[in-house]
């Protein structure tokens, strides 16, 4: 995710200043664009009432206005560790509604994974209710839970100078959408889309734009709460693979169990320190082009859990002083903060408690953790069945209210050369029910996973935050965990809460049924997901920067060239950009496929194209992608605007316009490459599932002299192969590197990289 997932030192007060880029490029306009522009201009001039564009300068609001805005924002329900069990309140209620069988669905969210069956193509997503008093508010499934369904926003911890998320002019968005569509469809489809766009702008689009502008005026960010609700909380597929992302640590070499537990204890201590930094507002506010970046997502990951419900989940956050350790499917409550002075216990104490866990001698526990991998409605039913017994309800409440969970996994064999792929699989799904899948609690926003064989990383539930906070936590852990005396001089534990085993009552027939269902789900997920991780070590971003080629945009072109060579067609390609320049901002889409990228791909596969023309096409494609990326970072993307217009139709009971059902629109949103960047100096990587059954998920870590890729795909289509796509990416990068080399501009750079590698 472009600049969204970066692990530059979090204490740095500024980020690298990014240049402003103009929209000028070497791109030649196609003949099909001129009639559209003429139509749009003619329409706007004749309408006599052009749409109002949001003001460019956002005035700071008074504290009273800010407070009113805050009341409109959905919140994560905050509870104390001593509160009455909300689970018992929920599941002992007899008037809980059943799952709606007639919910209206939208197809507007591209990050939505397909339905649970990998064969299914893009599954439409449920829309928000059209009867809401507060924008972004989730319709409660029980009247006693109204406050628990609201997302938390910490107004006092958000800089007052953050920008308000705007509503872009519809004419601009439509023009750029049609431009992005040209390389993907035929001339016949393009002509039809142009006519639909003009009709949409003249009729329904104008009305929906007005409604969206009204929504934008009434809140600091009209997008985030709707996006979280529709794309995550109402999404019914399993969190595993479809929603959660994972960040892998470098392979560790544990000499013995003491070294294994020492690493884990230091990682726990580092996470607790990072939590203290966040809660005490010690995270510096980074900047982009002079504007503050929003840190609110950092407050949403510790103590947060996604509670399963029929039809729509909700988020809950608890300020607790303990974590939950999971070992051989057994759960243990481990206090990590002093209950009185809130100081973190030292590493020696935490390691001692972890040693008690692995030396407890308890048999393999019931596979309750498997339930959290299942479809959300299935897990909601199993959750209810479990919580009918008070012992189980108390155990689940304790797990859900923990700061985060720590999975101490059983060791597995690690074949040489397969370390990265195996690590990715263990973090994504645990390897299956026969390995470590039950040793998880997928509802938790943060899971630290450590295996005695040296595999370690974080698994992150995506609904409360983007991966940026987890990436920063990973970076903080790795900067401290290898110091011999790290955390040894923190608070010693004397009279504190003891380590507590959290047990489940004997499961009944109903729970057994849902366990068997979850077992099948995990088996299918783990067996049908292809995972491939590799490192390209010929060059990295130092070479690309020396040639004044934006490294991220360069890799995006390599992904597209590799796909075309492998499948002989141009894919719709997605890269994610952050919106942290706006208050409560989350993410936007960069549409990486363009006329410029298509010209580059055709130049590379044509034997008749000269080296100079190929290099010219490469630079044009990279520059154009860079411009699109900067526009997305500034809130001028295409897809979130369209999402907002669709939601206005749903919320106000209007029919979905034909524009959103057209062949071209659906084609443009059938993203066969879901990509993002994890930028960290460590030998780490991020992994997530593919967006649909005919495409790939691809994340990469661009370092100075190498690039690490992780690729995922479903295996139901014999033409889709994660390993083959990885090999095609390597070939594309090699050819693009030779293209730069053959231009005669960077021999010395390549030689210096080679010398560094040898040294």
Automatic annotation (TrEMBL):
Top-rank taxon, per record: Eukaryota
Residues in coiled coil: none
Gene coding for it: LOC108610336
Keywords noted in UniProt: Acyltransferase, Transferase
A Pfam family it matches: Carn_acyltransf
Protein name: Carnitine O-acetyltransferase-like isoform X1
Species name: Drosophila arizonae (Fruit fly)
Stored InterPro entries: Carn_acyl_trans, CAT-like_dom_sf, Cho/carn_acyl_trans, Cho/carn_acyl_trans_2
Family under the similarity heading: Belongs to the carnitine/choline acetyltransferase family.
Domain Choline/carnitine acyltransferase stretches: 166-730
Native organism taxonomy: Eukaryota, Metazoa, Ecdysozoa, Arthropoda, Hexapoda
């Amino acid at each position: 995710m472009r600049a969204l997932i970066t692990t530059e030192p979090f204490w740095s007060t500024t980020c690298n200043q990014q240049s402003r880029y103009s929209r000028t490029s070497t791109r030649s306009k196609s003949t099909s664009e001129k009639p559209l522009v003429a139509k749009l201009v003619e329409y706007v001039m004749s309408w006599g009432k052009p749409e109002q564009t949001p003001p460019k300068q956002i005035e700071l609001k008074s504290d009273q206005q800010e407070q009113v805005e805050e009341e409109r924002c959905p919140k994560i329900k905050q509870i104390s560790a001593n509160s009455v069990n909300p689970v018992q309140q929920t599941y002992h209620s007899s008037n809980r509604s059943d799952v709606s069988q007639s919910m209206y669905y939208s197809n507007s969210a591209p990050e939505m994974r397909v339905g649970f069956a990998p064969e299914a193509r893009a599954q439409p997503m449920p829309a928000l209710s059209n009867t809401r008093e507060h924008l972004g508010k989730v319709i409660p499934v029980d009247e006693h839970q109204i406050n628990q369904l609201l997302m938390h926003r910490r107004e006092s911890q958000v800089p007052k100078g953050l920008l308000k998320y705007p509503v872009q002019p519809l004419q601009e968005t439509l023009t750029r959408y049609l431009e992005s569509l040209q390389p993907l469809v035929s001339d016949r489809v393009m002509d039809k889309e142009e006519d639909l766009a003009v009709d949409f702008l003249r009729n329904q689009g104008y009305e929906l734009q007005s409604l969206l502008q009204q929504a934008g005026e009434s809140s600091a960010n009209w997008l985030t709460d709707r996006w979280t609700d529709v794309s995550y909380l109402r999404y019914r597929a399993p969190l595993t693979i479809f929603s959660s992302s994972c960040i892998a640590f470098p392979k560790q070499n544990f000499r013995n169990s003491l070294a294994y537990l020492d690493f884990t204890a230091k990682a726990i201590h580092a996470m607790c320190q990072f939590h203290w930094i966040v809660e005490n507002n010690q995270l510096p506010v980074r900047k982009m082009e002079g504007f503050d970046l929003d840190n609110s997502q950092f407050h949403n990951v510790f103590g947060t859990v996604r509670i399963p419900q029929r039809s729509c989940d909700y988020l809950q956050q608890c300020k607790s002083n303990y974590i939950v350790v999971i070992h051989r499917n057994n759960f243990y409550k481990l206090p990590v903060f002093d209950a009185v002075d809130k100081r973190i216990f030292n590493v020696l104490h935490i390691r001692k408690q972890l040693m008690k866990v692995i030396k407890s001698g308890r048999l393999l526990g019931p596979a309750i953790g498997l339930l959290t991998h299942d479809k959300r409605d299935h897990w909601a039913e199993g959750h209810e069945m479990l919580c009918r017994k008070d012992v189980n309800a108390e155990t689940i409440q304790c797990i859900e209210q923990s700061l985060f969970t720590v999975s101490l996994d059983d060791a597995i064999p690690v074949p040489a050369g397969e370390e990265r792929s195996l690590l990715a699989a263990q973090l994504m799904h645990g390897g299956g029910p026969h390995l470590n899948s039950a040793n998880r609690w997928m509802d938790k926003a943060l899971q630290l996973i450590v295996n005695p064989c040296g595999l370690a990383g974080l698994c992150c539930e995506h609904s409360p935050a983007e991966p940026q906070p987890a990436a920063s936590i990973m970076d903080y852990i790795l900067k401290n965990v290898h110091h011999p005396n790290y955390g040894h001089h923190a608070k010693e534990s004397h009279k504190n809460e003891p380590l507590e085993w959290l047990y489940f009552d004997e499961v009944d027939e109903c729970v057994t049924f849902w366990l068997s269902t979850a077992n099948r789900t995990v088996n299918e997920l783990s067996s049908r997901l292809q995972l491939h991780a590799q490192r390209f070590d010929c060059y990295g971003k130092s070479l690309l920067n020396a040639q004044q080629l934006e490294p991220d945009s360069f890799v995006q072109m390599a992904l597209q060239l590799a796909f075309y060579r492998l499948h002989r067609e141009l894919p719709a390609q997605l890269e994610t950009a952050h919106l942290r320049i706006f208050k409560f901002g989350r993410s936007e889409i960069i549409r990486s496929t363009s006329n410029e990228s298509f010209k580059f791909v055709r130049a590379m596969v044509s034997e008749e194209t000269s080296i100079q023309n190929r290099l010219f096409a490469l630079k044009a494609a990279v520059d154009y992608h860079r411009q699109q990326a900067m526009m997305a970072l500034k809130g001028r993307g295409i897809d979130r605007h369209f999402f907002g217009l669709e939601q206005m139709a749903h919320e106000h009971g209007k029919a979905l316009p034909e524009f959103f059902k057209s062949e071209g629109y659906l084609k443009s949103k059938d993203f066969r490459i879901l990509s993002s960047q994890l930028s960290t100096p460590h030998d780490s990587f991020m992994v997530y599932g593919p967006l649909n059954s005919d495409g790939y998920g691809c994340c990469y870590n661009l370092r100075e002299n190498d690039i690490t890729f992780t690729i995922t795909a479903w295996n139901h289509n014999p033409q889709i192969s994660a390993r083959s796509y990885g090999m095609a990416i390597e070939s594309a990068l090699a050819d693009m590197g030779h293209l730069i080399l053959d231009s005669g501009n960077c021999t010395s750079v390549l030689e210096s990289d080679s010398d560094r590698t040898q040294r």
